[in-house]
């Protein structure tokens, strides 16, 4: 009997081709919006699927595992895997994998784009033009800040943080500081990065950029107290996970000019925004698109499928996150 999997939403052909080559059958959701948990459960109960490709918008917990006791793997189509209850997966001996390294370049470039958009006041300028407010050159209009030589504080010095550091160190002569639970020698050698305590980093950085996973220890890491440590001229960038930032505290900090500005690609209550956020001029918002590139999405599809195949063939995923 051929193996069969359920893919909760559409993935690129690059991954589907590998499934066909291996004779693995699949059912795939085709809606642009995420399926509800109820919808996922309904589908999972229809067939004895051997595996599932899940997305960061799918909450994979006991109820889901119960609906599909035959599934040996949930291969997440993303680098992050905070949508999955790993403890329950371990208990039930269900393999869980992610797609590490697929979006380092894309997310790093998006992060730097957000930094530049903030320091050049690019989005404000665009809004100003479209509103017909530009009546003639004014030397004081929408004054920005130089990026060159600034101190960039990376919260999380892993692969994505490392790419951001390389672009900024080589392109803008930035001083890179980082905090992490581990030392990153490569980051230090490639970008002259210096490891700091979290508090020191928050106080020193001109731009704080978040590149850590969402864990109990990083949830609301950027809260009122942390924001108060930042320089009033500093900017905050979040391309990691929304709940790392206490978004209500951020709205207040931006309103009261505790910090100069922020740019967010991810949101605490995604897809909703904390009250007041969209009214602020000193914040730039993008809809979780940092990794939205054909290159990254194709790689994510291939790696998710390769993890499925690996479990079917060897019992273990290539990119298991269960250790
Ligand atoms: C990831 O991979 O975790 C991104 O947030 C979505 O592509």
Automatic annotation (TrEMBL):
UniProt entry tagged with the keyword Transferase: no
GO molecular function: NAD binding; oxidoreductase activity, acting on the CH-OH group of donors, NAD or NADP as acceptor
Domain of life: Bacteria
Keyword RNA-binding on entry: no
Domain D-isomer specific 2-hydroxyacid dehydrogenase catalytic: residue ranges: 5-321
Domain D-isomer specific 2-hydroxyacid dehydrogenase NAD-binding: 112-290
Pfam families the record matches: 2-Hacid_dh (PF00389), 2-Hacid_dh_C (PF02826)
Keywords for the protein's UniProt record, in alphabetical order: NAD, Oxidoreductase
Protein family membership: Belongs to the D-isomer specific 2-hydroxyacid dehydrogenase family.
Protein name: D-glycerate dehydrogenase
Phylogenetic lineage: Bacteria, Candidatus Nomuraibacteriota
């Amino acid at each position: 009997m051929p193996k069969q999997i359920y893919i909760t939403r559409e993935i690129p052909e690059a991954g589907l081709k590998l499934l066909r080559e291996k004779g693995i059958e699949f059912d795939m959701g085709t809606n642009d919006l995420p399926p509800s948990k109820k919808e996922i459960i309904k589908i999972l109960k229809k067939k004895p699927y051997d595996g599932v490709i899940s997305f960061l918008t799918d909450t994979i917990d006991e109820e889901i595992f119960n609906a599909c006791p035959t599934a040996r793997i949930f291969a997440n189509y993303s680098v992050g895997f905070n949508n999955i209850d790993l403890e329950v997966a371990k208990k039930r001996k269900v393999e869980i994998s992610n797609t590490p390294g697929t979006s380092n370049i894309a997310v790093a470039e998006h992060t730097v784009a957000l930094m530049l958009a903030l320091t050049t006041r690019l989005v404000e300028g665009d809004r100003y033009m479209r509103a017909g407010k530009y009546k003639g050159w004014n030397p004081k209009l929408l004054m920005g800040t130089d990026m060159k030589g600034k101190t960039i504080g990376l919260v999380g010095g892993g692969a994505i943080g490392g790419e951001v550091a390389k672009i900024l160190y080589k392109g803008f002569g930035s001083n890179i500081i980082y905090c992490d639970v581990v030392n990153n020698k490569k980051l230090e050698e490639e970008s002259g990065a210096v490891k700091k305590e979290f508090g020191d980093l928050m106080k020193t950085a001109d731009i704080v950029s978040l590149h850590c996973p969402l864990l109990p220890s990083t949830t609301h890491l950027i809260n009122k107290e942390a924001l108060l440590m930042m320089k009033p001229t500093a900017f905050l960038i979040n391309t990691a996970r929304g709940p790392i930032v206490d978004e209500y505290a951020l709205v207040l900090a931006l309103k009261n000019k505790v910090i100069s500005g922020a740019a967010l690609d991810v949101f605490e209550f995604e897809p909703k925004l904390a009250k007041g956020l969209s009214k602020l001029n000193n914040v730039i918002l993008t809809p979780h698109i940092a990794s939205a590139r054909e290159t990254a999405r194709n790689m994510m599809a291939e790696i998710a499928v390769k993890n499925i195949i690996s479990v079917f063939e060897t019992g273990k995923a290539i990119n298991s996150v269960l250790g």
